[in-house]
Design goal:
It is built from 17 helices and 16 strands. Helix 2 packs parallel to helix 4 (113-122), helix 3 crosses helix 17 and helix 4 runs parallel beside helix 5 (137-146). It is an alpha/beta fold. 47% of the residues lie in helices and 16% in strands. Strand 11 and strand 12 (315-317) form a beta hairpin. The chain folds into two domains: 2-209 and 425-435, Rossmann fold (3-Layer(aba) Sandwich); 219-422, Glycogen Phosphorylase B (Rossmann fold, 3-Layer(aba) Sandwich), CATH 3.40.50. A seven-stranded parallel sheet has the order 3-2-1-4-5-6-7, sandwiched between helices. It has helices at 2-23, 25-47, 63-79, 113-122, 137-146, 166-176, 187-194, 210-220, 225-237, 249-259, 280-292, 332-335, 356-360, 375-383, 392-404, 406-422, 426-435; strands at residues 55-59, 84-89, 104-107, 127-131, 149-155, 181-184, 203-205, 240-247, 269-275, 297-299, 305-308, 315-317, 323-325, 341-344, 365-367, 386-388.
Length: 440
């Protein structure tokens, strides 16, 4: 039944989508990305149709799922050095690029059966692994019929998801029936997915490979000397340090008035803002708000060197303003090393952004209310390492608590780091459970 309704919607929407692409730039960009992905897949599969090594195809819809997929890909590569790995993504927020160990990285085409049939005629993947809860019914059916093993890794689905309701479960069971295994992130999700799978033993708790990706990123990245010098001086100059990460306008509208209150937050608290969007318009809106509250601020790109520090032989910076707007990409993960606690945005939007990098570095986290889609955030909340805020008053209380009580702040951060460290190894567990041909 699902295939009938799914394809009815797909083929009905297709001509409307093509017309809309003529008038809407973002839809046109999406259409172009699908065409590029289709061409890239067909070309690569054709060029490697005679290869005798196993081909693994991993899919992560957006940035977070791609982190999970890349961690799983690294584990596969560790065990099977001569295999080939194709990685696809769906969201335009993810940008295909050259990645070591990945043979092809491109956008996933729209889920029409004909493209998948063309691909399996050229080359049959040994396995297709999709992340979290993303299913593409036509792709899965074509691959499964061709003999490709299909899996769901780092699987997570919220308790209220409509797929778990009677109608949703009945519709999706034909798709889940074709899966050869599901690696769930925790026991609760394991139980939920078992209600969708005819063979319950094919669902196992293997964990979330996002943890592996986090530590790989933190351990593998190195700050440039100028950036390192900036963060070190920030750490020396301010007694306490707060990072506001992935913020939106409504985050800044709430946070700036609270943190500008000199009676509660003294000038010894330095603040870095890593806005979710660092376009000039957004940065100017932040600057206007800070000006309104008579705050001392500047941009990271404006913090010039005063020469070399004779003690360290590294660049020395002039005195930093209390608020610094970080207008460069790629620094947030390492920046957490230098703060005491942080706020992570997205919780006052649809869903909270990545809280795991801060937690892995022993930094407690404050968020908005919408964290239920993040298993990591919920676990941290249960540990007392994350404070979920619904109102401005909640935010003021949470910020004040960890600003005033350093022992509590450090204790919450330590618990977070211990939890993250104990959760490593999901990629290895998934490989051993479902992909290792030497396992009985």
């Amino acid at each position: 039944m699902i295939y009938f309704f799914y394809n009815l919607v797909l083929y009905t929407a297709w001509p409307l989508y093509r017309v809309a692409a003529r008038f809407q730039p973002r839809i046109r960009l999406f259409q172009q990305s699908r065409s590029e992905g289709r061409a890239a897949l067909l070309q690569w599969f054709a060029e490697h149709r005679a290869a005798s090594v196993p081909l693994y195809w991993l899919h992560g819809s957006s940035v977070g799922e791609l982190d999970q997929a890349l961690a799983q890909a690294r584990e596969i590569r560790n065990h099977e050095q001569h295999c080939q790995i194709v990685l696809t993504c769906f969201s335009l927020s993810a940008r295909p690029r050259v990645i070591e160990g990945i043979d092809l990285f491109c956008y996933l085409p729209l889920d029409f059966s004909r493209i998948w049939k063309q691909l399996v005629l050229l080359r049959q993947p040994a396995a297709f692994i999709t992340m979290t809860w993303d299913l593409f019914p036509n792709l899965i059916r074509v691959l499964s019929k061709a003999g490709t093993r299909v899996f769901l890794a780092s699987a997570s689905i919220s308790a209220g998801n409509w797929r778990l309701r009677p109608l949703g479960s009945r519709l999706f069971q034909p798709v889940y029936r074709q899966l050869k295994g599901i690696g769930a992130v925790n026991a609760q999700n394991c139980s939920r997915f078992k209600t969708l799978m005819p063979v319950k033993d094919l669902v196992q708790k293997t964990g979330d490979s996002r943890f592996d990706a986090i530590f790989s990123k933190l351990e593998g990245s190195v700050l440039e000397p100028a950036a390192k010098a900036f963060f070190q001086q920030w750490q020396r100059q301010y007694e306490q340090r707060l990072i506001l990460a992935s913020t939106y306008d409504n985050d800044e509208e709430l946070l700036i008035p609270i943190l500008s209150n000199a009676n509660q937050f003294q000038p010894d608290c330095g603040i870095l803002i890593f806005a979710h969007h660092i376009d000039q318009q957004h940065l100017q809106r932040i600057a206007d708000r800070l000006t309104e509250y008579q705050q001392d601020f500047g941009r990271l790109s404006q913090q010039g060197s005063t020469g070399l520090d004779p003690a360290t032989s590294e660049p020395a910076l002039r005195a930093l303003p209390r608020w610094v707007l970080v207008d460069q990409m790629g620094l947030l993960a390492q920046a957490y090393r230098y703060c005491d606690f942080c706020y992570v945005g997205g919780g006052f939007q649809k869903r909270v952004h990545n809280v795991a990098e801060a937690a892995a570095l022993a930094k407690p986290v404050i968020t908005g209310p919408n964290i239920d889609w993040s298993g990591i955030a919920l676990e941290l909340e249960a540990l007392g390492s994350l404070q979920r805020c619904h109102t401005s008053a909640d935010l003021q209380q949470a910020l004040s608590t960890w600003y005033m009580d350093r022992a509590a702040c450090q204790s919450a951060g330590k618990k977070a780091a211990q939890y993250l460290a104990s959760s490593r190894g999901a990629s290895k567990r998934f490989y051993q459970a479902f992909l290792d041909q030497d396992q009985p």
